[in-house]
Amino acid sequence: MSKAPFDPATQAAVVVFIGLAFLVGRTLPWSAPGEEPAAAARATAVEAKAPPQTPAAPQQAKTSQSPPAAPIAQPAAFTPQPETSIPDDDFGKAIRFGESIFQDTKTNAPGYVGNDLRCANCHLDRGRLPNSAPLWAAYVLYPAYRSKNEHVNTFAERLQGCFRFSMNGKAPPLGDPVLVALESYAYFLARGAPTGVKLAGQGYPALKKPESFDFGRGAEVYAQKCAICHGPEGQGQKSASATVFPPLWGPASYNWGAGMAVISNAAAFIKSNMPLGQGGSLSDQEAWDVAAFLDGHERPQDPRFAQTVEATRAKFHDTPMSAYGTTVNGVLLGASSPPSGPAPSR
């Protein structure tokens, strides 16, 4: 009997069946006869170890340093805790003491201050104002490595450095009521903020470096925009009982080791916050020039003084952002600096 030819529908079905069989055979795990149990076990083990699949991240160059804190993409503005939410208990007393130190440092921490400045001179609105190195934005970034002292700092150690350099004083020991109160105040302001990330308004917004900055141009800006509050000789202004506007150079100001003695830091602060109540009114160039003018004056010695001005500059100030150890208007800055630290008790 002759075989009946396949009809077209049957032929199509056979082709589809063979194609599907081939595809399944290509996609299923293959193992030699007798190896199915072992292969299955290996597949199970690999699946157990495999992490959940996530979208591929861009490749980053390897570095010997620890990775920086992960940034928040376009972080929302953080609002520090209002004073009305300070608790009415012993912790609340520590917070209020910290705030009083911040506002009137010399009066409330006299043994640790050697000039006429207060914390709130550089951290405006009691440490609350964004873009004025607010206290709440700094608190959430510690512990952190600092190149200034080449090790990981706690927040308490960071505060100690402020007393030593910016306040031209000495560091309160760990556990001292002054230090604990300031930590408590910072913790209170930052309550509710994410930790380990840079918040919007942190620090002073960095300025693009200009082609140059100039002491002479800075002197003109200072006379026009700054002297009315800080005095023609940078001495500040006082009332009968307190400093109203801080001195910007001279024996009652911050010393050569302070962050504000770095021209780029001073320029960033000035641009965002000065003249007081008119932040942003100066051009970037004016901010750079007046910062260079301020840095071109004597101030208390760097407490890390390394026996000579030349050695101290080489170790701590070897940068165009510091005038320490350079000659300005015929004066070698640092050579006649007043001593650092609080004046000896009489």
Automatic annotation (TrEMBL):
The keyword Acyltransferase does not apply. GO terms for molecular function: electron transfer activity; heme binding; metal ion binding. It comes from the Bacteria. The keyword Metal-binding applies. Residues 34-90 are annotated as: Disordered. Pfam families: Cytochrome_CBB3 (PF13442). InterPro entries: Cyt_c-like_dom, Cyt_c-like_dom_sf, Cytochrome_c-type_DH. Keywords: Heme, Iron, Metal-binding. Residues 213-298 form the Cytochrome c domain. Residues 34-82 have a biased composition (Low complexity). This is Cytochrome C.
